[in-house]
Amino acid sequence: MNLEVLVYLLIGIIVALSLIPLWRLALDYYLEWSEVNRRANELLRSVLTDEQYRQLKRHGYLDIPSPRDPECIYRVPHAPDQVGVIEQGRLKAGLCLQPLEKVPDSDIVVMHKLMIEADEETYLQTANKFIAI
Amino acid sequence: MGMLRVISKRGDDRVHWNEQDALTGDPEAMAAIREAERIFASERARGSTAFHVEAGKPVERLEQFDPQATQIILVPQVVGG
User: Which domains does chain B possess?
Assistant: First the structure.
C-alpha cells in the first residue's frame, strides 16, 4: 500500500467518524417523530368510529357532516391541505385552518373533527375560506 | 377514571386521575386532579380549546375543567391559514 492510498484511507476514516454524531442526531429525530406519530394515530383512532377510520385509511380523507346543515359535509384530508366544503355533492369551498405549533397530521384531523362537531360557528369564523371556482 | 390529553408537537401528553378516589380523600388522587386542573388552566391561557370527548356522546366544548369528564382533549391555538 503506497502512502497516497494510506492518506486517502485516513481521510475517509476521519470523515466517516465525524459524520457519526450527525447520523445519531438524525436517527434520534426520526425515532422521536415516529413515537409522536404513533401517539397521534392512537388518539385519532380513539376518536373515530370504525367506519370513519376505514374511510380515512382507504380514501385519505374523513367526511364530517355539518351539525347545522344536513346537506353540508366537511372533507378533512389526512395530509396538509385545505378542508373541502361539500354541499349537495359538489365542492363549494376550501377552508384553511392550522395550529400555531407543528403537530402530526393525525392530530390535525382530530382538531378539525372536534372543532366542527362541537363549535362549527367558531370553526368557520376562524378558518380562511376559498371559494371553489 | 378521567384523562386529559394535550395535543402538542410531542404528540399528546396525558394526565390521568381517579375522581372516586379523590372523593374518598386519597391525597394522590386529589393531587392528580389538581395537576390536571393546573395544566388545563395553563393551556387554556395559551389559547388552547378544550373538548369533552366520550364514546357514543356528542363532542362538547369545555370552558371549565370538569373532574367528572372521562376524557378531555386540549387542542392548541389555531389560526386561519
Answer: 2-75 (3.10.20)
- Residues of chain B with Cβ-Cβ distance to A107 below 8 Å are 7, 11-12
> Which set of grid coordinates corresponds to residue A25?
442526531
Residues A90, A43: Cα–Cα separation, whole Å: 30
Complex ipTM value? 0.91
How far is Cα A123 from Cα A116, in angstroms, rounded to an integer?
6
Domain count, chain A: 1
Residue A82 gets which letter from DSSP? P
What's this model's pTM, rounded to 2 decimal places? 0.86
pLDDT higher for A133 or A128? A128
The residue of chain A with its CA nearest to that of B10 is A36
Interface A-B, measured as beta-carbon pairs within 8 A, has a size of: 81
Length of chain B in residues, anyone? 81
Which of A39, A99, A126 is closest, CB to CB, to B12? A39
Range of the domain at A39: 3-131
Is A115 in Cβ contact with B49 (below 8 Å)?
Answer: yes
